[in-house]
Amino acid sequence: MVELMVVVAIIGLMTVVVTVSVEALLPGERLNTSIRNLASDIRSIRSEAISRGLEFRLVYDLDGNRYRWSTPFAIDKGVVRQGQGEDWEEGDRIEFPWQDLPDGVEFQSVYVAGLTYTTGEVFVSFDPLGTASDHSVIMSQPQYGTLFTIEVMPLSGLVRMHDGEFLRTEPSDGDFR
Question: Residue 129 belongs to a domain with what CATH number?
Answer without folding.
Answer: 3.55.40.10
